[in-house]
Amino acid sequence: MAKYYVNAAARKAKINKEIYGHFSEHLGRCIYEGLYVGEDSEIPNVNGMRTDVVEALKEIRIPVLRWPGGCFADEYHWKDGIGPKETRKRMINTHWGGVVEDNSFGTHEFMELCRQLECETYVNGNLGSGTVQEMSEWVEYMTFNGVSPMADLRAKNGHPEPWKVDFFGVGNENWGCGGNVTPEFYANEYRRYQTYVRQYSAQDGDIPSIDTPELIRRIACGANVADTDWTEGVLHTLFRHCDEERHGNLDGLSLHYYVHPEGWKIKGSATEFDEKVYYKTLSKAQHMDDLIRMHGAIMDKYDPEKKVGMIVDEWGTWYTVEPGTNPGFLYQQNTMRDALVAAITLNVFNHHADRVRMACLAQMVNVLQSVILTDGPRMIKTPTWHVFDLYKLHQDADLVESWIETDEIGAEPEFQVPELSESASVDADGHLQLTVANLSLTEEKAVDAAIAGFVIGSVQARILTGDAHAMNTFEEPDTVASCEFNGVRVTADGLAFTLPPCSVIRITCFPR
Ligand code: AHR
């Protein structure tokens, strides 16, 4: 029996809805086929965006979408993707799979997609191979509401009104595919480029921070995995000769971390794995907690008031591609193991909501740990989609104090995980939301929850469970799906329930 403690009166931080964000790159079949099929497609669409996919994404309340990359961002020249489609440049996507990029999905299409998804926009600029002028003009094109060359060009291309850019990334992975530069060099470049990411809607005296939604929030390129040298080097240079109240002229610092069960070179199969690899995968997912603490400690030194958000804008599992698919397309299946990776990671993000202010799963459709897979006109929701569906009630809720006493489990001493993962919040309607995952491959687990600061009237619960290898396929799309769970009992001091092995539950408590 595991003892679970929740104090609903101890509010810790707001869980930004953006923690449940997504990432879509010009990579494989994410944008083309997955999201965008063009107006003339036989697949039902609105202005070229697949209706089935948009509807499925709206169900899980996508809060924010990052685009156009990834590594693609630092090779992307935005002017190639505007104007009449027949005159847009055709080129090879040299980074991903060597296929033709016809630029039919560009800035206008991205903004249209976000309009349909009703989500915020996170545009990633090109620092690696672009110029300051190019980046500056893109921001002017998208956001300036007045007379100017770029605003006029936007109007000429059919959109007189400016768009809202909520977040703007100044380069991506500049320690690698975005230019292979040093932290100090990147930070100097960031200082220069961000100067021209103009805040056209700012009033006199407005200073952006991660908490100013009316302004563009600027995201600097952060570290890969545990590279604290990058975090320290970038922040040291950004905070030098910078007015204290401008907190390094950045509003977010990214972190990228992928789970490769068998290491970067081998990666491992998405669907075939044994007990050892299962626990290794989950233990690597749990490692996100260490990484946030590590980089967070450095951020605290420079930014103790937490005006700069940690933005984990690429996370998820990265396996060997599905047999027979283009290795450059990064297409992989998704099983209950991925659902548990998502449950662990989202619980970790919730617990660090004071510093982690946005996160983007990589990637939304048909690439890496997707929530949606498509095959021609067919579409399936993956087990990971179902976790996002369960967890969506945490969006913009208040994280509350909670912890669980649980055993460590695993098949190898160096890859142990806590048997249970959890987080708890109180939402705007005053409902207490608990999400708990049983990571055991084989054992059910009884949980006795002591709940303080909340008098429970009734509960509703949904569960996602199945064999670790269970997945949805185009032939059997609903093998893994959440269902109502009636096994939660209200006790004198809280709740009691038993979780089957390999399961994720959401319990909503309504006050008496
Ligand atoms: O998500 C795939 C790639 O992983 C992205 O393009 C890059 O930023 C990262 O290395």
Could you explain how this protein is built, in words?
It is a single chain. With 512 residues, this protein is of the alpha/beta class. It folds into two domains: 15-396, Glycosidases (TIM Barrel), CATH 3.20.20.80; 402-511, Golgi alpha-mannosidase II (Immunoglobulin-like). It has ten helices and 26 strands. It has helices at 51-59, 107-117, 132-143, 149-156, 183-195, 228-239, 263-266, 275-302, 336-351, 383-391; strands spanning 2-14, 21-23, 45-46, 49-50, 64-67, 91-93, 99-101, 120-125, 167-170, 217-224, 252-259, 309-317, 356-362, 372-375, 378-381, 398-405, 408-409, 417-418, 420-426, 432-438, 445-452, 456-465, 483-484, 489-490, 494-499, 503-511. Strands 23-22-26-20-19-16-1-21-25-24 form a ten-stranded mixed beta sheet, with helices on one face. The chain has an eight-stranded parallel beta barrel with strand order 2-5-8-9-10-11-12-13, surrounded by five helices. A two-stranded antiparallel sheet has the order 3-4. Helix 6 (228-239) runs parallel beside helix 8 (275-302) and helix 8 (275-302) packs parallel to helix 9. It starts with a strand and ends with a strand. The relative contact order is 0.15. Bound molecules: alpha-L-arabinofuranose. Alpha-L-arabinofuranose binds at residues 25, 69-71, 172-173, 314, 362-363, 368.
